[in-house]
Design goal:
The chain is mostly helical. The chain is built from two helices and no strands. Helices cover 92% and strands 0% of the residues. Helix 1 runs antiparallel to helix 2. The longest helix has 43 residues. It is rod-shaped and about 65 Å long.
Amino acid sequence: MLTKMQALDEAQKQKKALALMAKWRRNLFILTACFLMVAVYEMTAAGNMVVGIVFAVLSTVSLIFSFIVNLSIRNGHRNVERILDSLK
């Protein structure tokens, strides 16, 4: 069992980690948008279908990673709330 100070310290550390993960989520969304723009450009204007398909797959993978990070952030917030509720 954690003491009150240890629990507060753990909650602070998890909040810092969640803030870092939020930055990663934002960067993944930006990366997804960039990959998608290149994919659309390559499939339409440039006419290089293979490169467009590769970037479309990369965009999909990046989007899946951003959803996973988002799920981790939600679960992390729940965990911090549980830690803080256990102190009451």
